[in-house]
Write a structure and sequence with these properties.
single chain; alpha/beta; Rossmann fold; eight-stranded mixed beta sheet; four-stranded antiparallel beta sheet; 9 helices; 25% helix; globular
Length: 248
């Protein structure tokens, strides 16, 4: 991979690397995002953050909140496949936001990027609820990704406060151990507030993505919508989409 841009700020090394037409954002050696305008599906865990939108009818997901923007992989996927009216991205790192605009094309009119701490911003927020909230807040330590947001009762309560009654929370877990230790699997009262909890993963990736909703989500309908969407039909040989879906 070629290094397109790099800079060290306050002891943190930021890099934009290229592999063919794909750009990748690294922070201290940890991959945060990748972007290829001709290939929105990555074949990795970023795809799973976008997929829960397909539990819903077309045009149902109008407002999306993305906590943890990085270079904006899931934002591009949402705009390509879902076309929400508004995507609000909250990112703690100013450099990520700057690089997202400069190299990763985060300039569409429906994208609103904010430099803020996700928990503090959501705690202050008093606007219209969101149809989809994506929690992808990660940092890095010793060259490894590090989860920043907790998966406890208070964090889910805060997200639910700003979620539409029929909406969905999507959370990226760094590994299966983190999911097992989360409120979703250890606290029955926490789980009871959701009528649907789905898990996205595959055997080749440590990450696990969970989709939670107070609405009844139908996996048959989800698969039907995927099949009907160009570029996402899993049965096609050219499809890069790799996922497993199960109910928790």
């Amino acid at each position: 991979m070629a290094v397109v841009w790099q800079q060290e700020k306050q002891g943190v090394l930021y890099q934009v690397r290229s592999a063919g037409k794909t750009l990748r954002l690294y922070t201290d050696g940890v991959l945060h995002s990748q972007y290829n305008p001709g290939q929105p599906v990555t074949g990795h865990a970023w795809d799973w953050l976008m997929l829960p939108a397909f539990f819903y009818p077309e045009d149902s997901i109008r407002r999306v909140l993305v906590l943890g923007v990085g270079g904006g992989t899931v934002i591009h996927q949402l705009n390509h496949f879902i076309q929400p009216e508004e995507i609000v991205g909250v990112e703690m790192c100013k450099t990520h936001l700057s690089l997202g605009k400069r190299f990763f094309g985060l300039k569409k009119k429906n994208i609103k990027l904010l430099n803020a701490d996700a928990f503090a911003w959501l705690n202050r927020y008093q606007g219209e609820p969101f149809d989809m909230i994506i929690d992808d807040v990660f940092s890095e330590a010793d060259g490894e990704p590090l989860a920043v947001s907790s998966a406890d009762n208070s964090w889910f309560q805060l997200m639910l406060r700003h979620l539409d009654r029929e909406g969905v929370i999507v959370k990226n877990f760094i590994d299966r151990k983190s999911l097992r230790e989360s409120m979703l699997l250890t606290k029955k009262p926490g789980r009871k507030r959701f009528k649907s909890i789905y898990q996205f993963d595959n055997p080749f990736n440590e990450n696990v993505v969970i989709a939670c909703s107070r609405a009844r989500l139908n996996s048959r309908y989800f698969r039907k919508r995927l099949i009907e969407t160009p570029g996402l039909k899993p049965q096609q040989k050219t499809s890069r989409l790799r996922y497993r879906l199960r109910t928790l």
